[in-house]
Amino acid sequence: MSVLSSPHFHDEAKAFAFLESIVWAGGVVCPHCGVVGGRVYDLAGVRSKPSVKNPNGVIRHGLKKCGECRAQFTVKVGTVFEHARMPLTKMLQAVHLIISSKKGISSHQLSRVLEVQYKSAWFLAHRIREAMRSGDLAPFGTGGGAVEVDIK
Ligand SMILES: [Zn+2]
After folding, report:
1. Cα 66 to ligand 1 centre (Å)
2. How far does residue 109's CA lie from ligand 1's centre (Å)?
3. Sheet of 40-42: strands edge to edge?
4. For the CA atoms of the chain, what is the radius of gyration?
5. Strand 72-73 with 40-42, pairing
6. Which pTM does this prediction carry?
7. Could you tell me the distance, in angstroms and rounded to a whole number, from the CA of residue 134 to the centre of ligand 1?
8. CA–centroid distance, residue 55 to ligand 1 (Å)
């Protein structure tokens, strides 16, 4: 066993559970109405709309519904992972590679290791580095705020 065999690097559902345990350590926060620890329902088994690539749609992991404002969200809303089209497992792998490399990692190397296009790797690396930047943080996405990720 090595750190790279951790389930959250390979199983999308476990990746969401891993991120939730960090972001929502103090209870689930609805990113739409800001209620902390309110009524939140798990929307299990919901699939995305059919597409040419995925005629049956894909499972929407970690989808939740707020009982207070009736809006849907996942843990990715308000983090650097929001709106990314890559699986969360790959993005967590990228975070691990970037923070565990003594001299950093180039987007080209990230692209080769994660087997994603160079443009995707470059954009992902920029998002992650922006989240790690100290000092005043520019808001990300709609909600603003960055995510701190501690890989154990
Ligand atoms: Zn809400």
Report:
1. 5
2. 40
3. 40-42, 64-66, 72-73
4. 16
5. unpaired
6. 0.81
7. 29
8. 31
Give the count of beta carbons closer than 10 Å to the beta carbon of residue 93.
Answer: 22
The CA 127 to ligand 1 mean position distance, Å, reads 26
Residue 8 is classified by DSSP as G
Strands (E), the chain: 40-42, 64-66, 72-73
Q: Which of 31-40, 105-114, 128-137 has the highest mean pLDDT?
A: 105-114
Q: 67 C-alpha to center of ligand 1: Å?
A: 7
Choice among 33-42, 51-60, 112-121, 130-139 with the minimum mean pLDDT? 130-139
How far is Cα 137 from Cα 84, in angstroms, rounded to an integer?
20
Q: How far apart are CA 39 and CA 86, in angstroms?
A: 29
